[in-house]
């Protein structure tokens, strides 16, 4: 506790005890736990302390984060609603945006779908972006493996099942 005070760790911190002979004491301050009504991401602090000598081995805080670390920390704070009403408005705007994307997607599909079929609209004749879209889909499928796996399953079903069943091919397109 004296080491925490010497290193200006704000009151309300937690202490994790060493795990085994090579473990360290960890003093950490999570602003959401300490200031539930007004947590500030830049108040985060972490100290790692040698269990034998009491020497501070590492000290991390907001100023030690890089730009990406700060951005991620702010994103988490917004996601968890730590900015109060501003966070709520931001999340409401995101939710409305997602709903609008879904609704507009269904409307666009409905307007372009083939008559009497459930399937996808035909590609425009001068569709030059197909290769670029395919590259983007493959890259995103690699970065987001579950999305990539689901796209692969749909492609396999389409290629090996739907195209082989005449009624399904005619109705789905």
Automatic annotation (TrEMBL):
InterPro entries, A to Z: PepSY-ass_TM
Top-level taxon: Bacteria
Bilayer-crossing regions: 89-110, 130-157
A Pfam family it matches: PepSY_TM
Signal peptide span: none
Entry keyword set: Membrane, Transmembrane, Transmembrane helix
PANTHER family associated with the record: IRON-REGULATED INNER MEMBRANE PROTEIN-RELATED, PEPSY DOMAIN-CONTAINING PROTEIN
Protein name: PepSY domain-containing protein
């Amino acid at each position: 506790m004296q080491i925490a005070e010497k290193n200006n760790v704000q009151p309300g911190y937690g202490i994790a005890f060493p795990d085994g002979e090579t473990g360290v004491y960890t003093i950490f301050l999570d602003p959401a736990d300490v200031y539930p009504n007004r947590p500030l991401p830049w108040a985060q602090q972490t100290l790692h302390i040698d269990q034998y000598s009491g020497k501070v081995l590492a000290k991390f805080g907001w100023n030690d984060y890089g730009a990406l670390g700060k951005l991620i920390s702010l994103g988490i704070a917004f996601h968890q609603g730590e900015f109060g009403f501003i966070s709520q408005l931001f999340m409401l705007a995101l939710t409305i945006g997602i709903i609008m994307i879904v609704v507009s997607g269904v409307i666009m599909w409905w307007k372009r779908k083939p008559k009497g079929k459930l399937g996808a609209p035909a590609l425009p004749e001068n569709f030059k972006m197909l290769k670029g879209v395919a590259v983007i889909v493959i890259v995103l499928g690699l970065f987001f493996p579950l999305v990539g796996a689901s796209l692969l399953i749909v492609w396999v079903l389409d290629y090996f099942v739907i195209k082989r069943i005449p009624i399904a091919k005619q109705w789905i397109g």
